[in-house]
Amino acid sequence: MDGVRDFGNGCLCYLQDCNQGSGWGWSNSGLIVDGDQAVLIDTLRDERLTHHMLEEYRAATGLAARDINTLVNTHADGDHTFGNRLMEHARIYATPECKDGILARPPSAFQGLLENRPEGIIGDFIFELYGPPFDFTGIDPKLPTDLVKEDMTLTVGDKKVELIKVGPAHTPGDMLAVVPSERTVFTGDVVFFTNTPVLWSGPCSNWIAALDHILSLDIETVVPGHGPVTDKNGVRKTKEYLVYIQAEARKRFDAGMPIEEAIQDIALGEFEDWGGSERIVVNLNRLYCEFGGKEPVTDFGSMIAMMAPYAERARKRRAGSSPEAPKSCCPH
Ligand SMILES: [Zn+2]
């Protein structure tokens, strides 16, 4: 499924196998073309990957990167923005929250995490998340030039591309790119399909509302931020995951179950084999904050420390060995 997919109507996407490696960082992008005009939706997690993607788009459309004069960043995460420098000639549209997020978590932060990782399971997990083939060295992503404060419409030849703000959901500044004439939506990470959604921001109910908004649109083709091209079924699956996790977390919160225990106690069922299942740690952390009326804070270091053993157990389970009884390493 890797590579360019051309829908034949001026909408294309570039897909990466979302569950390879650790299942983190393998995102999709989109390209909307009309005549000699084009809008790129998102770059990839590093410049090598983004360069390859742009070459693939050139082979498919004849348009080189320099011919694409508009880029939309759906949100701030590095797997959607760290290739921005290869589009430095372009106008870059994103929400103000997206710009803030890129500034807050530059590639150097991840490179630092990688270089200073501890020995053992936590360090191994960090290496899986941020080590090769990803390369963050020397990357200085171009920041958005045009801040989208209200929903707006871009014009690409005769096509309209609607930029619809739906954050805070996955991140504080999520935005959809909808091509109504082609009944196509590029969702960024508002839709994860066959790869586990991660609730960096929330509130969770707002993410669910964003998915309901997509479901209300007259669209047929859904290009998710992670996973294969889908339709409204993929949107419903993302929603099912969030609704399920929210309900299961709520029961345990109300029963006074500590978060470390709740993380181990929730059976993921059909979502168990979606890549990045350890993101339940981040998701429950946000949900417990929401339920407790606390300002949600994601201490990334403690999230990593909790995710690493969860991911290790999931890997062993997939490999067929019997899972050991979970031990909490929660730093809370
Ligand atoms: Zn992503």
TrEMBL record:
SMART domains: Lactamase_B. Residues 26-226 form the Metallo-beta-lactamase domain. InterPro entries: Metallo-B-lactamas, NDM-1-like, RibonucZ/Hydroxyglut_hydro. GO terms for biological process: antibiotic catabolic process. Gene3D superfamilies: Ribonuclease Z/Hydroxyacylglutathione hydrolase-like. Pfam families: Lactamase_B (PF00753). Belongs to the metallo-beta-lactamase superfamily. Class-B beta-lactamase family. This is Metallo-beta-lactamase domain-containing protein. The lineage of its organism: Bacteria, Pseudomonadati, Pseudomonadota, Alphaproteobacteria, Sphingomonadales.
